[in-house]
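STRUCTURE:
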């Protein structure tokens, strides 16, 4: 049968079904509710579903009725795809409803062709491939609109969550939400267990923590992020019994640059303070390294963070001569001093910890003493040494600020 004649006969069948549009849409809705569990949840209400079915069938019948039409109007599936995405309807279920609807429409066209008799059934079969291509076009348009809407929502959500993180970090303005409201919108508790992560953005432009989202979801850790020049800042909400070490392991597993993590804190209104810890922890790592560091919340850590320049000067005054030694000598003396202090001044215990003889510990401590501002039997000198060692241990960049001289300064006279 010539194509033009087939299209004319199919157009007559479509025109015959047009007055039954509401009935066809109602049956499609009923089939959807009967066969697809999601729709029985009533997220998509009966009136909404009927209207969507009616809209789509009307466009299909309109296209088939116009036998000269070479284009397909995809307004119906596009509108349906956007609406279902906004309703969080699962895409596979929406497409399944479409397939059920098209199958029912095909059955109605087939019944109409049989009733018309003559060449109508043959004409419909000739047009079958075109009709099912039309179904594919509709499904593709629906899928594209659904995914586009989801992407738009994700961007909007990310922007909103980023703005909320900014309020946590910078503090709410007079016109912004309170911390309680921010917590509610982020789906965080106001009081809980939180961490701030500061991740340096690599110069390559690659994400600093690729795949972290999936790992945090597996740990049931809520998170929200703000991107800023050179870094990404995240606030993590840990479940009550979630091990912090597991969260840190998840961060370590994906880190591609320097990453600092704050100490655990309990109230969201403490986020700006926690961010400072995370930023200092990140900056204390070796440049161009891929590592994660978490600072402890100690009085010394807070003191150093609040006045780094003063701490640098103090460390220089206390350990300046030692820090100017060649790296191997400097490292040995500082490690021995730490071991000696941890052993409460016992050379024998320090030797066991450092795997060397106690006389070696005594020799090294005597040599270190020559660079200090007094003898090691002076409690003030021990206190200064302990503070300086804790400072450079917590903030290794304090060592980098002291460049070695060609000749180390002379130790103090005995």
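SEQUENCE:
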């Amino acid at each position: 049968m010539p194509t033009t004649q087939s299209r004319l006969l199919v157009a007559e069948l479509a025109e015959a079904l047009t007055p039954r549009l509401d009935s066809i849409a109602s049956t499609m809705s009923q089939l959807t509710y009967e066969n697809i569990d999601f729709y029985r949840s009533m997220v998509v209400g009966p009136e909404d579903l009927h209207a969507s079915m009616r809209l789509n069938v009307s466009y299909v019948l309109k296209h088939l009725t116009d036998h000269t039409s070479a284009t397909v109007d995809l307004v119906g599936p596009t509108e349906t795809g956007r609406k279902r995405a906004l309703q969080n309807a699962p895409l596979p279920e929406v497409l399944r409803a479409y397939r059920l609807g098209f199958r029912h429409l095909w059955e109605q066209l087939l019944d109409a062709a049989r009733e018309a008799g003559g060449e109508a059934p043959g004409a419909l079969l000739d047009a079958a491939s075109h009709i099912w291509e039309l179904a594919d076009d509709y499904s593709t348009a629906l899928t594209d609109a659904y995914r586009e809407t989801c992407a738009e929502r994700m961007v909007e959500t990310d922007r909103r969550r980023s703005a909320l993180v900014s309020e946590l970090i910078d503090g709410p303005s007079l016109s912004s939400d309170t911390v309680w409201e921010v917590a509610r919108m982020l789906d965080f508790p106001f009081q809980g267990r939180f961490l701030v992560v500061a991740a340096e953005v690599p110069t390559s432009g690659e994400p600093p923590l690729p795949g972290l989202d999936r790992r945090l979801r597996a740990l049931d850790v809520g998170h929200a992020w703000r991107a800023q020049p050179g870094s990404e800042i995240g606030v993590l909400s840990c479940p009550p019994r979630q091990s912090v070490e597991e969260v840190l392991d998840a961060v370590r597993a994906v880190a591609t640059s320097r990453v600092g993590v704050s100490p655990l804190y309990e109230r969201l209104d403490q986020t700006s303070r926690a961010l400072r810890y995370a930023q200092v922890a990140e900056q204390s790592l070796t440049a161009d390294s891929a590592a994660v560091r978490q600072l402890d919340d100690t009085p010394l850590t807070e003191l150093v963070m609040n006045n780094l320049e003063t701490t640098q000067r103090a460390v220089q005054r206390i350990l300046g001569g030692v820090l100017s030694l060649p790296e191997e000598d400097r490292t040995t003396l500082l490690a021995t001093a730490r071991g000696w202090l941890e052993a409460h001044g016992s050379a024998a215990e320090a030797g066991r910890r450092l795997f060397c003889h106690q006389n070696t510990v005594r020799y090294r401590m005597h040599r270190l003493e020559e660079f200090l501002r007094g003898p090691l039997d002076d409690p003030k000198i021990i206190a200064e040494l302990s503070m300086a060692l804790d400072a450079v241990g917590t903030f290794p960049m304090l060592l980098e600020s002291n460049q070695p001289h060609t000749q180390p300064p002379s130790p103090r006279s005995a």
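REMARK: Confidence is low (pLDDT under 50) at residues 401-414.
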